[in-house]
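So, can you check what follows?
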Amino acid sequence: MPKTISPVEGYRNPWTQGAHAYPEADTFAAAKEGMKRKRKPVMFHMPNTGEAGDQPCITCGAKLRDLPDTEKAPFETTGGTPKADKWSTWHYDPASKKVVGGQHYGCSWGTLLVRISQIRSY
């Protein structure tokens, strides 16, 4: 089923209007408006150049527009020149109708890999 173009300003459905595999929102208000009719939790991305960039990462504590704090992040850097992430990962909780859990893109992958490792060890 093809995704429809979102009528909400600043919100893009996956694979439409330049968005990639996840929904994208430019502001928290646009995210809430775009997710208004969702009944299941949704992971989406926000650009760190806007208001999301001022928020702290729930994993490492650094501001999302800055580099992740590698002392607290659940991953190791593998060389190269570090640069700040353009996007951050967020979750919409339909029960509370809130946007929660802002993370650096790299921190979200690190968190996922840690969770997979914990599940495998049981």
Residues 11-70+85-120 form one domain. The chain has two helices and five strands. The chain has one domain: 11-70+85-120.
